[in-house]
Amino acid sequence: MNNDILKVLYSKEEIEEACQRLGKEISKTYAGKTPVVVGVLKGAIFFMTDIVRAVDAYVQIDFIDVSSYHGATESSGTVELMQDINTDIKGRDVLIVEDIVDTGRTLKFLQDTFADRGANSIKVCTLLDKPAGREVHAESDFIGFKVPNEFVVGYGLDYDEKYRNLPYIGVLKPEIYTNK
Ligand SMILES: O=P(O)(O)OC[C@H]1O[C@H](OP(=O)(O)OP(=O)(O)O)[C@H](O)[C@@H]1O
Ligand code: HPA
Ligand SMILES: [Mg+2]
């Protein structure tokens, strides 16, 4: 699996440091509040578990499963809701935890959905932001790293449902997806 990686962008240690930094920012923002932290499956699985443990504030956690890439390197353009949260978020402070914001479609879908349900506030923490990929307006409040316009995998991020279990984030060799 490691042989399929062209270069490592962020090591396990750099990701851990980013989680600690973001955890401190989030703790300050939500001091005295109890936000509902919503992890976006499947990509944000590891980031979500690391980030909530770096936060020193009361939080409730929940998960939503949405999908639009279906194993490919380009968005299908349609965000499908696979599994919803269980929490009633009306009047609540919601923190969305994403692995990556690329075209912005997934994040915009989630922000619109939670706004329609009457959330009191909606903020976004993403490990990776890829501004060059943006097709719809969607901004994050807490950002780990700004990434170049390359397809990245690892630490939850997949290509064809693989590579999520890499402990670091890297760029896949182009022949892996062009030879398919
Ligand atoms: O800004 P966008 O272009 O919408 O891309 C970002 C979204 O795409 C990926 O999810 P994907 O649909 O691949 O589902 P997955 O998390 O289960 O891999 C990623 O985990 C983000 O949720
Ligand atoms: O660069 C990416 N890698 C993996 N999944 C993704 N979903 C959106 N962008 C990406
Ligand atoms: Mg994916």
UniProtKB/TrEMBL annotation:
<dbReference type="GO" id="GO:0052657">
    <property type="term" value="F:guanine phosphoribosyltransferase activity"/>
</dbReference>
<keyword id="KW-0808">Transferase</keyword>
<dbReference type="InterPro" id="IPR000836">
    <property type="entry name" value="PRTase_dom"/>
</dbReference>
<comment type="similarity">
    <text>Belongs to the purine/pyrimidine phosphoribosyltransferase family.</text>
</comment>
<dbReference type="InterPro" id="IPR005904">
    <property type="entry name" value="Hxn_phspho_trans"/>
</dbReference>
<dbReference type="InterPro" id="IPR050408">
    <property type="entry name" value="HGPRT"/>
</dbReference>
<dbReference type="GO" id="GO:0006178">
    <property type="term" value="P:guanine salvage"/>
</dbReference>
<keyword id="KW-0479">Metal-binding</keyword>
<dbReference type="GO" id="GO:0004422">
    <property type="term" value="F:hypoxanthine phosphoribosyltransferase activity"/>
</dbReference>
<dbReference type="InterPro" id="IPR029057">
    <property type="entry name" value="PRTase-like"/>
</dbReference>
<dbReference type="GO" id="GO:0006166">
    <property type="term" value="P:purine ribonucleoside salvage"/>
</dbReference>
<dbReference type="GO" id="GO:0032263">
    <property type="term" value="P:GMP salvage"/>
</dbReference>
<keyword id="KW-0547">Nucleotide-binding</keyword>
<protein>
    <recommendedName>
        <fullName>Hypoxanthine phosphoribosyltransferase</fullName>
        <ecNumber>2.4.2.8</ecNumber>
    </recommendedName>
</protein>
<keyword id="KW-0328">Glycosyltransferase</keyword>
<dbReference type="GO" id="GO:0032264">
    <property type="term" value="P:IMP salvage"/>
</dbReference>
<dbReference type="GO" id="GO:0005829">
    <property type="term" value="C:cytosol"/>
</dbReference>
<keyword id="KW-0660">Purine salvage</keyword>
<dbReference type="Pfam" id="PF00156">
    <property type="entry name" value="Pribosyltran"/>
</dbReference>
<comment type="pathway">
    <text>Purine metabolism; GMP biosynthesis via salvage pathway; GMP from guanine: step 1/1.</text>
</comment>
<keyword id="KW-0460">Magnesium</keyword>
<comment type="function">
    <text>Purine salvage pathway enzyme that catalyzes the transfer of the ribosyl-5-phosphate group from 5-phospho-alpha-D-ribose 1-diphosphate (PRPP) to the N9 position of the 6-oxopurines hypoxanthine and guanine to form the corresponding ribonucleotides IMP (inosine 5'-monophosphate) and GMP (guanosine 5'-monophosphate), with the release of PPi.</text>
</comment>
<dbReference type="GO" id="GO:0000166">
    <property type="term" value="F:nucleotide binding"/>
</dbReference>
<dbReference type="GO" id="GO:0046100">
    <property type="term" value="P:hypoxanthine metabolic process"/>
</dbReference>
<keyword id="KW-0963">Cytoplasm</keyword>
<dbReference type="GO" id="GO:0000287">
    <property type="term" value="F:magnesium ion binding"/>
</dbReference>
<feature type="domain" description="Phosphoribosyltransferase">
    <location>
        <begin position="11"/>
        <end position="159"/>
    </location>
</feature>
<comment type="pathway">
    <text>Purine metabolism; IMP biosynthesis via salvage pathway; IMP from hypoxanthine: step 1/1.</text>
</comment>
